[in-house]
Amino acid sequence: MGSTCEINAAMSIWRRLSLFVLASSLCSCLCRAEDSAMENIVTEKKAEESHRQDSADLLVFILLLTLTILTIWLFKHRRFRFLHETGLAMIYGLLVGVVLRYAIHVPSDMNNVTLSCNVNASPATLLVNVSGKFYEYTLKGEISGSEVNDIQDNEMLRKVTFDPEVFFNILLPPIIFHAGYSLKRRHFFRNLGSILAYAFVGTVVSCFIIGLLMYGCVMLMKQIGHLGGDFFFTDCLFFGAIVSATDPVTVLAIFNELQVDADLYALLFGESVLNDAVAVVLSSSIVGYQPEGDNSHTFEAMAMLKSFGIFLGVFSGSFLFSLTPFHVTKFTKLRDFPLLETALFFLMSWSTFLLAEACGFTGVVAVLFCGMTQAHYTFNNLSPESQDRTKQLFELLNFLAENFIFSYMGLTLFTFKNHVFNPIFIVGAFLAVFLGRAANIYPLSFLLNLGRKYKISSNFQHMMMFAGLRGAMTFALSIRDTATYARQMMFSTTLLVVFFTVWICGGGTTQMLSCQKIRVGVDTDQENFVSIGPDGVERRSTKQESVWFFRIWYNFDHNYLKPILTHSGPPLTATLPACCGPLARCLTSPQAYENEEQLKDSDSDLILNDGDITLAYGDITVSTDATGAHTSGTPVGGVAVNSDEALDRELAFGDHELVIRGTRLVFNALLFELLFRR
Amino acid sequence: MGSTCEINAAMSIWRRLSLFVLASSLCSCLCRAEDSAMENIVTEKKAEESHRQDSADLLVFILLLTLTILTIWLFKHRRFRFLHETGLAMIYGLLVGVVLRYAIHVPSDMNNVTLSCNVNASPATLLVNVSGKFYEYTLKGEISGSEVNDIQDNEMLRKVTFDPEVFFNILLPPIIFHAGYSLKRRHFFRNLGSILAYAFVGTVVSCFIIGLLMYGCVMLMKQIGHLGGDFFFTDCLFFGAIVSATDPVTVLAIFNELQVDADLYALLFGESVLNDAVAVVLSSSIVGYQPEGDNSHTFEAMAMLKSFGIFLGVFSGSFLFSLTPFHVTKFTKLRDFPLLETALFFLMSWSTFLLAEACGFTGVVAVLFCGMTQAHYTFNNLSPESQDRTKQLFELLNFLAENFIFSYMGLTLFTFKNHVFNPIFIVGAFLAVFLGRAANIYPLSFLLNLGRKYKISSNFQHMMMFAGLRGAMTFALSIRDTATYARQMMFSTTLLVVFFTVWICGGGTTQMLSCQKIRVGVDTDQENFVSIGPDGVERRSTKQESVWFFRIWYNFDHNYLKPILTHSGPPLTATLPACCGPLARCLTSPQAYENEEQLKDSDSDLILNDGDITLAYGDITVSTDATGAHTSGTPVGGVAVNSDEALDRELAFGDHELVIRGTRLVFNALLFELLFRR
């Protein structure tokens, strides 16, 4: 009885809210009708009217979000997993889009005036002299001839259409930052090599496969005369790039809830986060590759190389920008003022984005790496309260931005006026997306499995194949430029791909998991060390990657980066060669000396724990005595073992078939092993 | 040694940051120089360039904020109280303004083209046909003839100038909401009558006094020929309205730190928060009063009445809009999902603002009342985690917005190109502001003291007089419209008033407090009940206002509003008459029945505690038995006393000269008194 009551309550709220939306739109309609009746419209009045209208439009979106949140709550309450919040947001967006498109008719008041001027360029600011008074206009952009009539057609639909740059500069950054910021699970670092392979190699492969397939498709369309405009090979590649960005949101929310195997989670999450960055840079390189002046659009080896150069340059540039904000948090003792600390953290992250954008690099990529490095380094410098605050802040921003984007996606299917739905292109795109994903996952997994000690099993591969949803990034990239016929067709097709994958693949995640017999309900803390795979064969989480890459990285990070950027880690005076003594002393914070024993990170259950590493690579632990002398190669317990011996012993552990909980226990067990078994 | 090290570290950070700023502005300059060399500028390139420039400009502001935060940290660290963070932000803003104005010279690239068209109106959207290509322009506003040249003069300064509406629609709402949201101290409700008097009557009085004085000043200027343009009486009144909005930020930060007497805090905070709302509505009424078509600007009784009607209408309308978001939080059980709850809370608060704006009311006023009512009602429906989250979120938003506004204020003193500094007007304004504040505080305090049991002492009055700083609201109101000569002169003068009051009055707060011998270091929790005034005479915090107003309000709030809007309070079935039974059952949440004993609010030390009221007005406590029957008039302890008797006893308590800590102790003492002394 209580539950029906709740549902009734929720229903009544919805009814009220929808009445609300209706009332507010009615109100705005009336206002406008009233307005058009007036003859002498003063500029101020008009500006006020436009402001009112903007408020009403934004209000519609906010009520949409509210509605989504209430429904999500109901779904979560009932443990209903077939439709994720993003899918739901899209459905509500669709409904509102239908209403705006077909139900509300606004009398066109001929607000636009077309001027034919003999200006040789289009300036950023235009001053119009209307009978003695000057009015200032700002450039919004070029519009195609076909749009000119549309613009005068329906002001209402234009009003609810956001500037595409809003997505890139306001909505995407918090989403991407949050993804980077929550990436710091130890399983991510354990699978780093595979993740990088999927994200970089896989995305490029997928981009080219899709591009080539779509080019074939376009050729076919041209042959049978189904193509209404230009469609170049670069356009196909561009489509491949934007459609290769997979979205972690929907699937991973379900993974989180069901506590799916942590390695699968890390592989999927890592891949989808990093391939967003790859896709952004790829697509901008492809656009940069397009020769501007001439319309040749042919394939040239030189331009291809140039494009590749841009890709690498933008990528590494954006990465470098993400490293700026660390010293600030290290050398200030803001810990007593969590508000200042949180504000500073927020501003530094934002400035990374702006700095990259101002210098012509890609802000979104910079912000992703900023999130990752902030989580790994800066997080340790923050006070516990600020750690909570920043997490919660970015969680909220991410949630709002994400749901906004998805509901806008639904809305835009009906409010966007230049859709080009071409059946052949759509079918081709779906096929290409499927094949592109397959060409990413299966061959790469095969190659990776050659090098991996613990293989990526075939059901994991199928799950990764299935979980390649397209989401916010794909949408933002495709809406960014819808000027040409090719871009419009891409945009419409992309929308359909996103809808399909989010609803079908997202909704079917639970079924797919049980179908593939992938373990759920795994407590990641319990399987820190040894985990039993779905095939019953025991796997060892710590040792999934080949060792050398990981060891070099860890060593460098632990001995140099962490001490430079945070208060944790050994003092630099111990790790740097003696010749760098003054520099080391300058960079080492007093806390590093004080807390020398505190070599473990405070967030030990989130990021790669030093304890684990000490265990796995006992040989590279740096222990320092009071004089700061550098004594490498002494493992914990004081017993000298060389690198290979320690690794061998560590690997042999698997035979014991012990499932030991937590790092500390394992640590003690190893000590015991070292001291008494030999 | 440690402290010099810190300072060195901070200095090095600043040096790096300033280098950063320099580098980024240099970089943007170079970019632009490079740009102007190009001949064939494509629109896309230009848009990208403009975007880059925007990013760089925003970056400058963010680095300014970062700098401010770091300096604030240093000040707080050293307990340096002469300069508040807002004053600091202004100084940094000033410095950057000087650099932008005088140090950076951008070669004018003649970006603007003036078109003389035979259009009869200025449309919102303009399509310009440039040699076959259509470009879309949006209306930014009318500019005066004198500005036309300025616009072409320095693009750089124009770029860092924000649209004034940004302040009203983005930066002010979080500040005002936060003020309302943190207003819920019990001392506020105890001084409600006085606060309302100061805020409403006092602000209107101050507005008219300042308006009249300024009119005299303007007349004088006209006589001696110092006036360069029109200046009407309504302009003077408008100036009076915008300059009457006092800012709570600076003084109250110091009050908080020093733990100044809670009643003085409540009076100042309540007054300055509410008079912002009054000033907004007053100023918009005055603008609405100005006859649009003709330029008569004479005083008319009819228009005056109309203006008053607008004032009341806007005020009550905005207030009503603030009441919308409550039922949503009451009937949903979102407590298990703090993220959803926080997001919903944020969206509902924002939608209040937008709804009010969309319907033509004042969003800022709606948001203020929304904050107050959310704190009083919705806050109790939230889970403890969400209570923390929302508090921290709005604290952060408030902090960022506030510092941004103040640093922008500093910047605009140099970057705004149409300053009109008139010495006579400035001197007159300072005098008028001083007299207006005096005419607000002293006569009103005298009148209020006639009615108050516990007087507002003269040193409190002097402190209130001194603490009338002008801040964000005054600035936002004055920058909103700078089209005419009168408005430009007002804006320049307002800036000076803000600078003076924030630096001199804000910086001198500590001195003034010790000069006026006002108690500091008062723990508000300890003086819940009886407090000793600065004059050594014992005062009773609970009983400062006359009883009738407070009692009616409390009774209504406790018995009807709280049960309807939150889960706390007695069930409505008990408080409403029997005829409303079905309605009452429908509106009462199941929790209200369950938690009938939980009549105390969870945040008892923040908002008006039911325990206090039970004590003070034992007669109006509603106790309900299990059947829900309505038995009013039975005080706690089961001993029937009538209203006056209870009040008298309560008042007589003061004679005992007991300083009892906390409500519970007092509560027990009263029980003891009731049961054994009679």
TrEMBL record, chains A, B:
GO biological process, one term: regulation of intracellular pH
Membrane topology: Multi-pass membrane protein
Signal recorded as keyword: yes
Subcellular localization(s) per the UniProt record: Cell membrane; Recycling endosome membrane
Record-given protein name: Sodium/hydrogen exchanger
Alphabetical keyword list: Antiport, Cell membrane, Endosome, Ion transport, Membrane, Signal, Sodium, Sodium transport, Transmembrane, Transmembrane helix, Transport
The family this protein is said to belong to: Belongs to the monovalent cation:proton antiporter 1 (CPA1) transporter (TC 2.A.36) family.
Start and end residues of each Cation/H+ exchanger transmembrane domain: 68-514
GO terms under cellular component: plasma membrane; recycling endosome membrane
Xref: PANTHER family: SODIUM/HYDROGEN EXCHANGER (PTHR10110), SODIUM_HYDROGEN EXCHANGER 6 (PTHR10110:SF94)
Main location: membrane
InterPro entries on file: Cation/H_exchanger_CPA1, Cation/H_exchanger_TM, NaH_exchanger, NHE-6/7/9
Signal peptide segment: 1-33
Native species: Sinocyclocheilus anshuiensis
Keyword Signal attributed: yes
Lineage: Eukaryota, Metazoa, Chordata, Craniata, Vertebrata
GO terms assigned for molecular function: potassium:proton antiporter activity; sodium:proton antiporter activity
Residues spanning the membrane: 57-75, 87-104, 166-183, 195-221, 301-323, 343-372, 393-414, 420-439, 485-509
Superkingdom of origin: Eukaryota
